[in-house]
Amino acid sequence: MDPSNPGIAQEDSVKAIHDIYANIGFRPPPKQFTILASFYMINQISIVEVICKPVSLATGTKCTPAIKYSPCGELMHDTHAEVLARRGAVRWLMEEIGRLRTAKQYVSDWLVETGSKDQNDSDESPPYRLRPDVSLHMYVSTLPCKAASCLLPLWLVLTIYQGGDASMGYLAATQDAQVALLKSQSAHLFPKLRSHEASRGRDDYNRLGVLRTKPGRADSPPALSMSCSDKIAKWSVLGILGGFASRFLEPVYIESIVIGEFPQNEEEKSPLRELVKGDCERALRTRIGKIEGLPEGYAVHPPDIRFTNIPFIHSKTELDKVMRTAGSCNESLCWLADSRPPEILINGLKRSTAPKNRYVEKYRPLLSRIAMFNLYNQTLQVLGSRDYPLPDNLSYGGAKANSTRYQRAKTALTGPNGPFSGWIRVEPRYQHFTLQGNFNTPPTILSSSST
């Protein structure tokens, strides 16, 4: 990898991700496409040596309807590629801490101790951070949460649509012209929402710079998951770690997002890219603005937006060249570096899991809430924390609330005075399971959203 040329380093990283995907051997069913996302680390060892390590990889385009949520933590609510890849990266980071603490003479190229004296019992002073020359990057094979068909003339796009979340401009640019005009002229049919309230999917996509829920299709059952654009914007303030991993690591931010699947030989390619880059800037930077009350260590850190021309073999664009696709794949692939074999999920559970086994530990998805809860407990053990073992009656939500610095940062962003005050919160009853998967009665007051 050539450290003197960032463009070459980026393309080499994307190729490495695609190679891992190809070696896994996952393939969507005929006439179905999918989206690929990955988190990868870059270590600038010297001026002549750079190491790239993909740490997580995922595919997926689905999310679980709210009516099917489980109170026991074994079900994945959101199986979009970007979300699974982020959860995978968080798990890899916690597992890397485990390797540092338990493997003899193991040296990490990615993490280093902070030297904190109070390093085991508070997220105010976590024991680890990224090495100074290490950065985290994200790749996604297409725009977050977007759907595309044929191109609209750019003049129409620029006349009617002027941004929004990271896919609204591109959605407009790739929407059928008659449908786009109809939607732009029917805003009065959608309910009037206050500026901070979230829109349902793609409803009223003339409404710009706002929070949106999944799924995008109006005929899909509603879910409580926010759009991938919104989640990436959230990560640009809170980092990717969430409540558990923030106990062990200083905030980790995405330095760049590499986006694929753009028209390559179109006359309007450059203006379209500028339009999309502008949408991403608004979605991930401008609409957040200045946030008051962020604790030390947290800041608004929007990623740099980049593009790649490397095609993804199972994208809609590539598959449509051979045979028109009929829809997106229902399955999701999850892969972690230095970990267990890849998992394939469908409907939020590991493929082929019998109903009687869904609550059994070995059938739980590695990235499920209860699996991450147990990994948190194991990491407390290897660190020698006095909080280990966690009480049998401690709930998932209760354990996450103990990461007080992270919770203060989240309140600054999604609390009543924050720019994302309209963030949809998961009901408390879905966060009150224990390490064993037992369901505790929720307390009277709990408003923390899931991460």
Automatic annotation (TrEMBL):
Q: Which GO terms describe its biological process?
A: adenosine to inosine editing; RNA processing
Q: Which GO terms describe its cellular component?
A: cytoplasm; nucleolus
| One Gene Ontology molecular-function label | double-stranded RNA binding
Q: Name one Pfam family in it.
A: A_deamin
Query: A to I editase domain location, by residue?
Result: 56-433
Protein name, entry field: A to I editase domain-containing protein
Tell me which species this is from. Leucocoprinus leucothites
